[in-house]
Amino acid sequence: MALFWCQDMRTKLVQEAYMAKQDDYVRITLRLPPGLHKDLVELAGPASLNAYIVLRLEEAVANERSMIATYGSEEPLPHPDGISAADLEAENLALSMEAFERRIRSAIAEALREVLGERNRK
Questions:
Q1: CA distance 46 to 2
Q2: For residue 79, what are the contacts with CB-CB under 8 A and spacing of at least 6?
Q3: How does residue 76 score in pLDDT terms, banded at 50, 70 and 90?
């Protein structure tokens, strides 16, 4: 009887010292696409999938907090490729202008075809 009590106490002490308690975490259900799940399992290696996801999320939150501390919460966060917001806006404007020019050229060409077609018929 004493042997079982000692083993039980030792197990209880180890659990209290090293194992996480349910109250230390919030349990969630997470739906993942099968391909992402497979990639995460491979990347986790010998660690548990849960441990790997928690680690990556902690890293992402720390990086985001660092970016906000560096650039301020009012500033847009930098583009991952290092492109500034002004450069992105200029690029989008240039692309919009190119699309607008293509439409105008197409409309002019269509109008000219109609005018020339009408002249040729007369």
A1: 37
A2: 85, 88
A3: low
| Lookup result for tokens 């077609």 | 117
Region of 92 on the Ramachandran plot (φ > 0 left; ψ -120 to 50 alpha; else beta):
alpha
Task: Provide the b/e sequence for 66-80 (b: ≥16 CB within 10 Å).
Answer: eeeeeeeeeeeeeee
pLDDT of the residue at 1: 45
In which residue are the tokens 């000219």 written? 112
Residue ranges per structural domain of the chain: 18-77, 81-122
- Alpha-carbon distance 41 to 49, whole Å? 6
Q: CA–CA separation, 5 vs 11, rounded Å? A: 10
**Encoding tokens for residue 88?**
């992105």
